[in-house]
Amino acid sequence: MNKVYKNALDAMHDVKDGSVLMLGGFGLCGIPENCIKALVEKGVKDLTCISNNAGVDGFGLGLLLLTRQIRKMMSSYVGENAEFERQLLHGELEVELMPQGTLATRIQMAGMGIPAFFTPAGYGTEVAEGKEVREFNGKMYLMETALLADFALVKAWKGDKYGNLVFRKTTRNFSVPMAKAGNITIAEVEHLVEPSELDPDHIHVAGIYVQRIFQGRNYEKRIERRTVQMSK
Residue 57: which of 75, 84, 29, 36 has the closest Cα? Predict the structure, then answer.
C-alpha cells in the first residue's frame, strides 16, 4: 500500500463539504500548516473542526474562519482569535466548548475503541446540560462520548513511507491521540525518510494508524504569544 502523496491537496483529495476534521496542535505549536492552507485553497465548507483551539487571526484555523469554511468548532480554548469571537457573538458559528482534559480524553477514547466514559469535570455547569449523570463513590460524574473524525490532520517532525511518525518535544500534544481517532489520518512531515532511518524505539505513532503522508513545505512555525524578553 503506497501511503506517500505529493502534497496536501493531493492527500486531501476526498475531503468534502460537511467533513468532520481533527487538527493537531496546541496554540500554533505543531499545527498542520500545509493541510490548513490546502483546505482554504480547496474551498470546502460547512466543516466541523475538532481542535484544542481556533488558531489566531489570519493564521492556523483562523484562516478557515476568515473564509467562513467552518460551521462548527469543538475546542477547549479560543481566546486568541477576534474573528472567532465575532462569529460566535453574531450566531454565525456553532461552538462546543469543553474542559481540555475532557477534549483530550474523548479523542483518546475514540482511538481505543471505547464509546464513552465518566468524568467529574463540568458537573454542575452548562457543560453538563443534556448529559447522563451518575454517582460513583459519593461523587457525581458526567458521561462523555468518544470523538471520531472523518479525517485527522497532524504534523510531525519525521515520518517514513510506512506512516510511522516522530514528533519533537511538545509538538506531539493532541496529534498523537488524534492520529488514532480519524477514519483517515493524513500526516504532513518536515522530513520524509526511509523506514530504516527511524529508530523503532523512538516512534510516537505507528504507521498502522496513518493512511497518507507527505513532505510538508515552507513552515512558518509562528509563536502565538511571546512570553520572554528579547535579549539586548
Answer: 84
CB 188 within 8 A of CB 216: yes
- Give the residue, 77 or 208, on which the prediction is more confident: 208
pLDDT above 90 covers what percent of the chain? 86
At 99, the amino acid letter reads P
Alpha carbon 223 to its chain centroid, in Å, reads: 18
15 Cβ partners below 8 Å, 6+ apart?
21, 39, 42, 44, 150, 151
Would you say 143 and 116 are in contact if contact means Cβ atoms under 8 Å apart? yes
Q: What confidence tens digit (pLDDT) does each residue in 16-36 have?
A: 999 999 999 998 999 999 999
| Structural domains of the chain ordered from first start | 8-114+147-215 (3.40.1080.10)
The helix or strand, by DSSP H or E, that contains position 111, with its residue range, turns out to be: helix 100-112
